[in-house]
Amino acid sequence: MTRFDRSQQCVVMDIEGTTSPISFVTDVLFPYARDNARKHLDATYGTDETNGDIALLRAQVEQDLAEGVAGAVPVPPNEAGKDSVIDALVANVEAMIKADRKITSLKQLQGHIWRTGFEGQEIKGVVFEDVPPALEKWHASGIKAYIYSSGSREAQRLIFGNTTYGDLRKYLCGFFDTTVGTKREPRSYYEIWQSVGVDRPSQILFLTDVHQEATAAKAAGLEVLISIRPGNAPLPENHGFQTITSFAEVMI
């Protein structure tokens, strides 16, 4: 068992490979967004929300083209017509998903596509069986729990609001995404510390499956445990972090 120091007042959790199987993201969520991107854009084209999504994607694609990113396709102006714009957007979105890019423009659109899937019950959020009882226990003990994922906050709320174990959002105090910064930068964890209302970063326990994220969080002063789950990438030798295979190992 891994002792969770009572001076630590909140837990911040990654999703993919930590609360949820990587396969849920790679085999369910990503394909759903890819396969439904055109349908979603066609059905919502011209709405304020989708106009915002397209503006973000246009800006990202322009940057990608300037930097020579593989798979980037110029997006024509609106005057070229709806079908031409959507064709280019879908080509870019498919390339971004294939490259598993952690960028806000993609994540925001994916969240809006997934919303349709969750609302229509085509998708259910998958979490490991040890996650709900741990969240419930921490909540009862006054430990604040947060999610930090490269997926948009809306997508996070959808996943935890529609799990195979029911709505788990009642156990969560908030959601962070890449608008606070990327997950491999210490500054991002500093920003989270500033937002969660504890006196010291060491009062935050961060759970992740990614060594680079663990290193960044540790550099910001957080306590860190690395999650070992089926399908996760192997860790480097002598990584120096405590590991868990279940949230039940984190004892309060």
What is this entry, summarized?
46% of the residues lie in helices and 11% in strands. The chain is an alpha/beta fold.
Mind explaining what this structure looks like?
It is a single chain. With 252 residues, the chain is α/β, with parallel strands linked by helices. It is 46% helix and 11% strand. It contains eight helices and eight strands. The strands form two sheets. Strands 4-3-2-5-6-7 form a six-stranded parallel sheet, with helices on both faces. Helix 1 (22-44) crosses helix 4 (104-119), helix 2 runs antiparallel to helix 4 (104-119) and helix 4 runs parallel beside helix 6 (153-161). The longest helix is centred in the N-terminal third of the chain and has 23 residues, at 22-44. The radius of gyration is 19 Å and the shape is globular. The mean pLDDT is 95. One of its GO terms (biological process) is L-methionine salvage from methylthioadenosine. One of its GO terms (molecular function) is magnesium ion binding. InterPro entries: Enolase-ppase_E1, HAD-like_sf, HAD_sf. It comes from Eleusine coracana subsp. coracana.
Order of helices and strands: EEHHHHHEHEHEHEEE
CATH homologous superfamily identity of the largest domain: HAD superfamily/HAD-like
Mean model confidence by pLDDT: 95
CATH architecture of the largest domain: 3-Layer(aba) Sandwich
Question: What is the class of the largest domain in the CATH system?
Answer: Alpha Beta
Structural classification: alpha/beta
The dominant shape is globular
Strand arrangement across the biggest beta sheet: 4-3-2-5-6-7
Radius of gyration: 19 Å
Helix content: 40-55%
Supply the number of structural domains: 2
In terms of quaternary structure, the protein is single chain
CATH topology of the largest domain: Rossmann fold
The main β sheet shows up as:
6 strands, parallel
Pfam family, one: Hydrolase
Protein name: Enolase-phosphatase E1
Organism: Eleusine coracana subsp. coracana
Keywords: Amino-acid biosynthesis, Hydrolase, Magnesium, Metal-binding, Methionine biosynthesis
